[in-house]
Structures are given as C-alpha cells and as structure tokens.
From TrEMBL:
Its main location: membrane. SUPFAM superfamilies: Periplasmic binding protein-like II. Pfam families: Lig_chan, Lig_chan-Glu_bd. Residues 235-600 form the Ionotropic glutamate receptor C-terminal domain. The keyword Signal applies. This is Uncharacterized protein. The lineage of its organism: Eukaryota, Metazoa, Spiralia, Lophotrochozoa, Mollusca. One of its GO terms (biological process) is detection of stimulus involved in sensory perception. SMART domains: Lig_chan-Glu_bd (SM00918), PBPe (SM00079). It comes from Patella caerulea. Residues 246-305 form the Ionotropic glutamate receptor L-glutamate and glycine-binding domain. It is found in: Cell membrane.
Length: 654
C-alpha cells in the first residue's frame, strides 16, 4: 500500500459522507434513516472525492493527515491516496482501518492520534455505520482527558458518511467539521459555523470534474470558519490569590470585584484566545507547599488536582513546582526577596556639611598654594629695589613676614580680600592669577555647598543581613506559607540558617512573625520604638506604592525569581498561551505591565537622587591648580627679569 509508506503523523480533517442531499436546494435531509447506505456513484467516489480532498488539503496547506476508514472504502481510500501523492509531493498520511472496532479502542486511537501532534489534529473519516459513534467519543474526549487535549477547537475533520444528521452535528462541541456528500448527485461540501451548516461555494462538484478549486476564492477560513474564533468562548477556570497584583473587594450588591494586573493580563489573554473565565481562590489561601500527608496545598494543589485550568498570580517559578506543573514563558514579572525596614536617621549635622564640598586633598592643596604664594611675596619684598637698601637678614623677621603674607592671602580668598598692593609688575601678575584661582575655587565650592546643604544623608541601621543577625533587640519576619519561607527554612547556607533560627525563636512569643498579611509586617516596621525587618518579595512594591519616604531596602538576600502563568502538566492550553505571551513580550506589553507593577507613586522629593554623590576631589580642580601654577611661574619669570634689569642699571651707573 503505497500511501502507507508515506504516511506517519499529522492529524486534522474529517470528511463526512452525507448522502442525503437535494439536487436543487443542497440542504441535508434530516429525515434519512440513520445507518441507511445510499448507492454511491463510482465515478464520483473514485475521482471527484480524491480531487476535492486534494484541493482542500492544498488550500489548507496541510503537510499530513490521519485517514480513518472501514474496509468497504478500501478502494476509495487507495484512489484518494494516489491522487494526493500525485498532487502533493512529500505529503504524509497515517491510515487507521477501524472495521469492527469497539468504543474502547476508538478512544485509544484518538488518544494516540492526539499524542502525535498535541495540537492541530487533522483527520479524514471514510466511515458509515460507526461515524456518529466515533464522533460522539471525540466530542466528549476532552472531558475525560484530564485537561490534556483540545479536540473541541484544536482538531479539524473532513467526514464522508451517510449516517450523520445536521441536528446532531450542531449539538457537538467539535467546531471544525467539513461535510462531504456524494452519491448519484453532485458532491456537496458544507462547513459548520455559528450553529449553522453552510455550503462551501468555492469548491466545485463532480458535475464539472475538469474544474479545479478556485484558490483565489477559497481560504482556510472559508473551509473552517470557526478557526478564527479560536477557543469559541470556552470557559476557563483561573486560580489566583489576593496580592499586590490582584485586589479583591465586595461591593454593595455583595458581588466580588477583582482589579489589578492579574485581571488585566487575564482579560488580554481571554480576548486574544477567545475564552471566558472565572477566578478561583484556594480555600486555604496558600500558594503551595505540602501538607503533613504529602498532598499539595494552595494554588499548586488546585492545578495538581485539575480543579483549575491555569494560575495567574504572584506565583514564582521554582524547580520543585516545575516537576508537578508547567510554566508559560516568558514570565510577566520579576521579584527579588529583600529586607525591608524603616529609613535610617540623619547621619550628619548641618555644621559638618560646610566642610563636605571639598575633600581633604583639596584643602591641603589650597593651603599649600597659600604658603607658596606667601613665600614668593617675601622673596619679592626681599629683592625689590625699594626694600633691598640696608636690608639685614633676620630669621625672626622672615617668619613674621611669611605669616603676615599668609594672613593677607587668607583674607584674599574671601570676597573682601585686600592688602596685596604694590607697584611691582611681578606682584601684580601673581595677584591676577591668584584672583582667577580664587574665583574658580569659590564658584565650585559654593555650588557643592548648596548641594551639600540640601542633601540629607541617612545612615542605615544595618548594611547587610550579616549585621542584622548580630544586632540585639531586633526582630525579623516573613509571610507564612510563602516561597521565601520555604527557601529560607530549607537552605543550607549558614546565614539563612541563622535567619531561620531567629524567626523560629521569635515565633514562640510573637506569632505575627509569620503573619500572612503584609500590612501587619509594614505596620510593625513603622511603629515607633519597634526594631523590625520584613523579609519578602514585596519590599520594592511596598516602597513604590507609599506616599512617603519612610521605608528602604537594606539587602537582597535571595536571587531574582520570575513570576509566570502556570498550567496543568501537558495542558492543552500550553502552546496557545506560549504563543500569546511571546507576542505580548515582542510588542512591549509585558514590559509595560512590569512598569505598572513597580510604578513609583512616592512624592517627588523621595525620588530625587543625591546631587553630591562624593566629595569634590583634587582631580576635579586640576584646572584651577594649573592656573595658579602658571601664575606662579609667570610671576617668578617677571621677577627675574626685574632683578636682572636692576642689576643692569646699577652696572651702567658705575
């Protein structure tokens, strides 16, 4: 059997042999007795059925198909395979002879077909008496597959049979069905859409076998209109919990109202995939974890027991959870477990800030410049013509002169500095460059002083968890039944062991250490006299959503954890959700969602970063130092010229 060698995998198409067609109206005769076989015209069956199927497959661009048939249709199946192989090179088929098959084996066959593809199942049926029975099994297959299959909207069928009634098909959950009818009348093609059976006008019947499919008019949606409806309003149960991502309130009418990022993401997915949903919360209010008898609790338990189809919540991806359930990537949020505490006290008095604009190196360089200029002025005075007459060397006099010059130059650095006045050009040049040095130095100092006076420095009560565990009278807590509690409690790290041991000790007299309500922990942090730290993934969210600057993050003690949609193992939703999330990531929606989660709602003054991140260093004032150095060099050069000029005049005078 040549078709059998090419065939393997790719399901989807089922053909309904609907022999009850009126030539004039082409409406199915719902009064034809079930199981009655109408005589089939051999020319129509062998030639035009194969041609129609081949044209449909080319239009749908199917690479393979599953053919399910009974022995009486052997010849028709072989003719169809030969025709398809001639028209479509490389096309693969898988054949299933189901003559005399029982319902149990029918179900096993459908399971085998689905497992090969997991989605987009394509099936062609060449059946008669068992057509309805097989379709009924397929129609209810999803409800028995533990949420792992989607025959309802994920399979496509082409059915050739005389035992199917219009009324029966319209009651089915299966959405993508083509009815192919042929007897002594022309071929009739019908598709199901919106609770009606509609003729396919773009296909030709056997009265004109030489005409081919009009490709310009036929499309995938014209053959299977329900494909564009995707999940066709299928109802989905979404597990969730109240958190920073989901707010739950009860209005005056006693109706539960949901809001937040979880609702927004759920509505986007529901619109994209065309399903409806209802939120389900675990009765124990937990995310996961195992009970004493080893059963999973919370949201993980709902998924494990198949009580919900997916979970959209503040639900982190972990290795242990991944063994039981599947996560849909990419994730839609990222969290870091951090230590949250009250903002520290002011670390410096205002009078100290006066000295903050410059580093110690700048002050040293300025003092060195003053001393150097004072000595230079002494030399000018020593060798100047006016003061060199009857000059007697005295160490005491030199010291007094240098100190006097230093005092003059210190006053010179102020806005009213004076006292350096002389007719000597060398001194004037020195003073000019010194003024430029002072102007630059003063301008930079005033700018940094303004920033230093307006910038408030806070000192953290501790800088790491290592310091926290050493502090007496301090306590720390975490939300009970959270992932962070599990990770800390099971950690082998010495620091985490100390953190966990401390929390267990506090819990003996203070049960709120493991309180589930984040507000309880935050209120303890802000209580006057309370020395308390909260360890959790909500730290950044709590800071951003306050209207004050009362909180800060001191340390991140666990790696980043990603939050993603979770589904049951091998869920039928997985491929479609993954495709949707990739598109939401590519178009920037997930980034926008993450920004919305961490939107900074604090007052503006909380967001201003320190303007003076460090003291001004000597390297920052190299230009001013260079200017002063050039001034000194120029003044010395002019002094030498003056000295040489005086010596020359004296020599000429003799």
């Amino acid at each position: 059997m040549t078709g059998m060698s090419i065939a393997r995998i790719y399901i989807s198409l089922i053909a309904v042999w609907f022999l009850d067609v009126s030539v004039s109206s082409r409406i199915l005769d719902i009064n034809t007795p079930m199981g009655q076989e109408l005589e089939m015209d051999s020319n129509c069956a062998s030639g035009n059925i194969a041609s129609s199927l081949s044209n449909m497959i080319k239009t749908l661009e199917w690479p393979d198909v599953n053919i399910v048939y009974e022995t009486p249709y052997n010849e028709t199946v072989l003719n169809t395979l030969r025709h398809i192989e001639q028209e479509l090179l490389g096309f693969q088929t898988t054949l299933y002879d189901v003559t005399g098959i029982n319902p149990s084996n029918m179900e096993n066959m459908l399971r085998q077909i689905y497992q090969k593809k997991s989605r987009d199942v394509r099936i062609i049926l060449f059946l008669s008496n068992i057509t309805l029975e097989l379709l009924e099994i397929a129609n209810t297959f999803d409800s028995r597959s533990n949420k792992t299959t989607n025959y309802r909207t994920g399979s496509s069928w082409i059915i050739l049979s005389s035992s199917i009634f219009k009324r029966q098909l319209l009651d089915f959950e299966l959405k993508n069905i083509i009815l192919l009818t042929c007897s002594r009348h022309p071929i009739g093609l019908y598709t199901l859409s919106d609770a009606t059976i509609t003729p396919i006008d773009c296909l030709n019947d056997c009265s004109a076998p030489e005409m081919e499919l009009e490709r310009k008019r036929c499309s995938v949606e014209s053959l299977f209109p329900n494909i564009k409806h995707k999940y066709s309003k299928h109802h989905v149960l979404i597990g969730t919990l109240e958190s920073n991502l989901l707010q739950i309130k009860v209005n005056k009418n006693n109706d539960t109202v949901y809001s937040g990022v979880v609702v927004e993401l759920s509505e986007i997915l529901a619109q994209y995939l065309n399903f409806t949903f209802t939120f389900v919360q675990p009765s124990d209010g937990k995310y996961g974890g195992k009970s004493r008898d080893g059963k999973w609790q919370g949201l993980v338990g709902l998924l494990d027991r198949r009580e919900v189809d997916m979970v959209i919540a503040e639900f982190s991806i972990t290795e242990e959870r991944s063994k039981l359930i599947d996560f849909i990537l990419p994730p839609f949020a990222t969290y870091t477990w951090s230590a949250l505490c009250k903002r520290g006290i002011q670390s410096q008095s205002n009078w100290v800030k006066v000295f903050r604009p410059f580093s110690i190196g700048v002050y040293k360089a300025t003092l060195a410049t003053v001393v150097a200029v004072a000595v230079l002025l002494l030399l000018v005075q020593r060798y100047s013509t006016e003061q060199s007459i009857n000059y007697r060397f005295s160490l005491w006099n030199h010291m007094i002169s240098v100190l006097n010059n230093i005092l003059v130059l210190i006053s010179f650095l102020t806005s009213r500095g004076d006292g350096v006045s002389t007719t000597k050009v060398s001194v004037r040049v020195l003073v000019a460059f010194l003024w430029m040095f002072c102007v630059v130095l003063t301008g930079v100092y005033l700018g940094n002083l303004t920033a230093a006076l307006t910038d408030i420095k806070y000192q953290k009560p501790f800088n790491s968890l290592e310091e926290l565990v050493q502090l007496p009278d301090w306590k720390w807590g975490i939300r009970g039944y959270s992932l962070g509690k599990t990770l800390i409690g099971n950690s082998k790290d010495n620091l985490m062991i100390k953190i966990w041991k401390g929390m267990k000790e506090f819990n003996k007299t203070d049960p709120s250490i493991f309180d589930l309500d984040i507000n309880v922990h935050v209120n303890r942090i802000l209580t006057n006299g309370e020395q308390y730290v909260f360890l959790g993934a909500e730290a950044k969210y709590e800071i951003m959503n306050r209207n004050d600057c009362a909180l800060e993050i001191v340390d991140s003690f666990l790696s980043n954890f990603q939050t993603a949609i979770a589904v049951t193992k091998n869920s039928y939703l997985t491929p479609d959700l993954e495709s949707a999330m990739v598109q939401l990531s590519d178009n920037g929606y997930l980034k926008m969602l993450d920004d919305k989660i961490y939107k900074d709602n604090r007052p503006q003054y909380c967001k201003i970063k320190n303007t003076a991140k460090r003291p001004l260093l000597l390297d920052d004032l190299l230009g001013a130092v260079l200017m002063a150095s050039v001034g000194l060099a120029t003044a010395i050069f002019v002094l030498l010229i003056e000295k040489c000029g005086d010596s020359l005049r004296k020599a000429l005078a003799h």
